[in-house]
Structure formats: structure tokens, C-alpha cells
Amino acid sequence: MDEAMLSVEERAEKIRSSLDPNTAILVRIMQTSQISNGFWMGIPKGFCVANMSKADNFMTLVDEQGLQFNKVTYLARKNGLSGGWKWFSEAHQLRKGDAVIFQLINIKTFKIYIVRKDIAAVGTSLKPAENLAKKRPRSTAPSVVVQDCDEVEDSEFLTDIKNYALPEHIRSNYYRLCCRHKSYLHANLVPDLDCNSVTSMISETVKIAEAIMSFRICNTSVDELADWKMILEEFAQLGMNVAVMISRLDEMLELSERVADSKRYGEFVSKPTKAKKKKSILLKWRFSSLKVPPKGLSLSSEHSKQRSQIILKRQ
């Protein structure tokens, strides 16, 4: 039968039946609430109970082109996708009546297939990179993933940062940092940030990343780590994808604080107590030539007797 004659449900079923039968698959026809306003992607409770995590977590959505959308919030108690689903929906220009096929690859990953209600709309959705250029999402949106990275910056990366006056070594190090994180860290910055601000944020992020990599607990204070974390948290509020770096700083802070606590404990244990000091002064006086005890040292009759015996033996 001609594809154009099939309903969206029939075309979606055709794709669903071609997928691995050993994976959990869900077909949803988009409604207004799922693609606008609240952007709530509800999932049937039975599907969630049988296949999904029992606790809230982040999901990764992978589209047919292999592009990954990370940190899409799954709310276990409410049985649905919330934060991050809006960005996926807008990036793929989902419309009311479109069918979305969710194939659960693992407990944290959905492979997504989209079937358009309007056949003429097939293939007209913007590419994710073009979406980024047209509209920067808020900081809650997931990051676009860099699939492959070479040592030399690719043309897409150079085009994306051409407006930022980054020194060559900062640009090169930032590219490698993006490769390690598999995403352009600045991709989700809030709109209307001026180029100078973004340039400063990228430069500071690179410097902190380099400091983290060269971290030595004996050379870095807790205050420095706390300052780095505070800076990155401010960047994160503006949409910079630095969650991994903040998490690493939390680990470093915890380690540094444990070491600092152990040092303070060691100093406390080794610190002479008042009794130890008195005993030390007493011993020195006994075997000295002084006849009068040091100021502040009160002696018992036994101590005086021992002192007299020592002086008589010397004579």
C-alpha cells in the first residue's frame, strides 16, 4: 500500500514491528500538553512499573540520526518525562498528531523514532545544530553531544565559536575539554549573553578544568576549591554544561576537608597538654643547678625531697 495512504498509527506500527521484540517499546500520539505549554510526556503506569527505574533519574534520548539529548528528567512517581523533554520536542518540531516511538535500550536510554502525521512534513524538521543557532535553550535543557573528536578542531566547532575572541591555546584546550565531556559546554547558554561574557566564561572554565587536572592535595587549599565550585555553579545557572566538573570538585573538597581534619586531629594529639608541660619543667628543674623552682611551678613535699637528694649527691 502507498505510504501516503496509511494513517500515522499504521505507519508507526510498521516501524514498531520492525524493532527488536526483546526491547520494551511504547508508541505515543502527541497531544497539545506534550508539545507545548507544560511539555509533559506522560508514560503509562504499567510500562513504567514493568520497565522503568523505581526512582527519579536522568534519561538520554537518542534520535534516528544518533544525536543524544542528555539529562531528560524522568519522574518515577509521576510516570513521565519532564525537564529536557521540551528541548527534544522543540528541536524535532513535534506537532499534534505526530507519533513518537520510544524504544527502551536500557533503563536510562530511549531510542526515539518519529512518524509525522503530515507526510509533507517528513524531512522538514531543522537539524539540531541549526536549532542551536536559531534558539539557545535555557540552562535546564540537555546538551548536544559531540560524537567524534580529533585533535584538530573541526569546522562545526570553529564556526560555533567564531564570535568569541579566544586565545589559540584557550580555544584548543576548550575543544579538548568538549571532547572529553562529549558536548559543547556552551551550547545551552541562556539567550542574550554578550560575546565578551561568553568568552570570559569559556576561558575561566578552561582554567578551572586545567587546575582540576593538575590537582595536588598538598598544593590546593579548601578555599581555592570552594571558589572554583562557586564560579562553576554561577556558570551552570547561565546554562554552561559544567555539572561533571562541579561533581569532581565536590569529591576534591570532601577529600581535602578529610585531610584537613586529620591534620588538625594530629596537631591536637601531639600538642603538649598543661600537665605534660608542667612535668617537663619539673624534670628540667630537678637536674638543673637552680635552687629556686621556676615561677608558677608549685611542688609537693615529695618533689622537694627528690630535689634535695639530687643536690646532695652532686656535692
TrEMBL record:
<dbReference type="GO" id="GO:0003677">
    <property type="term" value="F:DNA binding"/>
</dbReference>
<keyword id="KW-0539">Nucleus</keyword>
<keyword id="KW-0805">Transcription regulation</keyword>
<keyword id="KW-0804">Transcription</keyword>
<dbReference type="Pfam" id="PF02362">
    <property type="entry name" value="B3"/>
</dbReference>
<dbReference type="InterPro" id="IPR044837">
    <property type="entry name" value="REM16-like"/>
</dbReference>
<keyword id="KW-0238">DNA-binding</keyword>
<protein>
    <recommendedName>
        <fullName>TF-B3 domain-containing protein</fullName>
    </recommendedName>
</protein>
<dbReference type="GO" id="GO:0005634">
    <property type="term" value="C:nucleus"/>
</dbReference>
<feature type="region of interest" description="Disordered">
    <location>
        <begin position="293"/>
        <end position="315"/>
    </location>
</feature>
<feature type="domain" description="TF-B3">
    <location>
        <begin position="26"/>
        <end position="118"/>
    </location>
</feature>
<dbReference type="InterPro" id="IPR003340">
    <property type="entry name" value="B3_DNA-bd"/>
</dbReference>
<dbReference type="InterPro" id="IPR015300">
    <property type="entry name" value="DNA-bd_pseudobarrel_sf"/>
</dbReference>
